[in-house]
Design a protein that fits this description.
It holds the Pfam family CN_hydrolase. InterPro entries: Aliph_Amidase/BUP, C-N_Hydrolase, C-N_Hydrolase_sf. The chain is 20% helix and 27% strand. It is built from five helices and 14 strands. The radius of gyration is 18 Å and the shape is globular.
């Protein structure tokens, strides 16, 4: 399948830039959506996606939190589940094609044989499905509600390669490290992170970027739902672990130019210094 991918912008990606960087842009202009979805109302949340993408014609990708299309629901999920061939995903694809903007966001996926996945949908700027990542590490009660994904892989969207993660995945260092071997330009983590775990994700997002010398975009939701209070804290982290932009803890929408990965100096390219023969001791989990 061929993907039109992110739409290059005159101010961010010139012909000289492409020649110098092997055809990849230096920046990704991201619309970061730190909002609360309407619980159990897929149509209303799809409409919100359409409104935001329609308002911003100057962004490459719009990023929405975990389970944004359905809300963070843990009960009576059958009627809420969305299929990749269903009307909600088709609507997102049309919105992306009409606005020439890519979409990354969370939803409850109806999988094969009745499986339910906490998934990240990735649609490119032409309206094609570029990727669909199923959360691999489930937190708390999620493990009794959702099925766990079984694959970690980068997703190519035009000239940009992203490493997808969902919420608790960020806290498992091996997830980002596995994706890093695919040399993503940027990690994208979406979350429904709740109190009292704000600092867990603050530290984890900075660490995952630094561990792998790869920028990271983290988009979390706000509001209250299903007995949880969600803490925001959406941010962009540079490849040195420094916070480039932070949306704070209240609702908000922001456009941020995200610096994409470039090969770090060899001395601090940790992937080149790995010695895997040392890392599994006799008492390590198997």
């Amino acid at each position: 399948m061929a993907f039109a991918g992110f739409r290059p912008r005159d101010t961010a990606w010139t012909a000289d830039d492409q020649a110098m960087t092997g055809g990849r842009p230096d920046l990704l202009r991201a619309l970061m959506v730190q909002e609360s979805p309407v619980p159990r109302d897929v149509d209303a949340n799809v409409e919100r996606v359409g409104a935001l993408l329609g308002e911003r014609s100057d962004v490459d990708v719009a990023i929405f939190p975990e389970l944004f299309l359905t809300g963070y629901q843990l009960h009576h999920l059958g009627p809420l589940a969305v299929g990749l061939d269903g009307t909600a995903v088709s609507a997102i694809r049309r919105i992306c094609a009409d606005s020439e903007t890519a979409f990354v966001g969370g939803y409850l996926e109806r999988g094969e044989h009745g499986a339910l996945y906490n998934s990240m949908l990735i649609v490119d700027a032409a309206g094609s499905i570029a990727g669909n990542y199923r959360k691999t590490h489930l937190f708390g009660v999620e493990s009794s509600v959702f099925d766990a994904g079984d694959r970690l892989a980068c997703v190519e969207v035009g000239a940009v390669r992203i490493g997808p993660m969902v919420c608790f995945d960020l806290e498992i260092a091996e997830v980002a490290r596995t994706l890093a071997f695919g040399r993503p330009d940027v990690f994208v983590g979406i979350a429904a992170n709740m109190a009292p775990f704000h600092d867990d994700h603050l530290i984890a997002s900075c660490a995952r970027a630094l561990d792998n010398r790869t920028p990271l975009v983290y988009v979390n939701r706000v509001g209250s739902e299903a007995g949880f209070d969600f803490v925001g804290g959406s941010r962009v982290v540079g490849p040195g672990g420094q916070i480039v932009a932070d949306l704070g803890c209240g609702p908000g929408v922001a456009v941020v130019d995200v610096p994409l990965r470039r090969d770090p100096p060899s001395d601090v390219d940790y992937l080149k210094h790995l010695r895997p023969e040392l890392y599994r001791g006799q008492d390590s989990p198997r």
